[in-house]
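Collaborator request, handled under Task 6.
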Amino acid sequence: MKTFEDNLQRLEELTSAIKQSDISLEDALKTFEEGITLAKKMEKDIDEMEGKIQILMNAKDLDVENSSGDKKEKKASKKDSVEPALDLFTPSEEVTGTRNS
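Structure tokens returned to the collaborator:
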């Protein structure tokens, strides 16, 4: 099973290959199809990772030991919970699928 980093490296290779001026239309199409398939898989992987992070970040019940040694539950209020913003890509890093020529 390839890691996310391996898939990202392959996607970068495909991006470089498709930008070559001497690539045939057929090869460009094959490369593009492989890149789209890989990008969709990576997007699914990122969604799964974000889901796991959300679960960890939004855990509502925390066991806190008080001074008497008993455990008491502390409930997080809506005011205390902050939804994390996961901005993984800046607009300048997004692949648009167009060539600059």
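The cover message to the collaborator said: "The radius of gyration is 22 Å. Residues 50 and 56 are 10 Å apart (CA to CA). Please let us know whether this matches your experimental observations."
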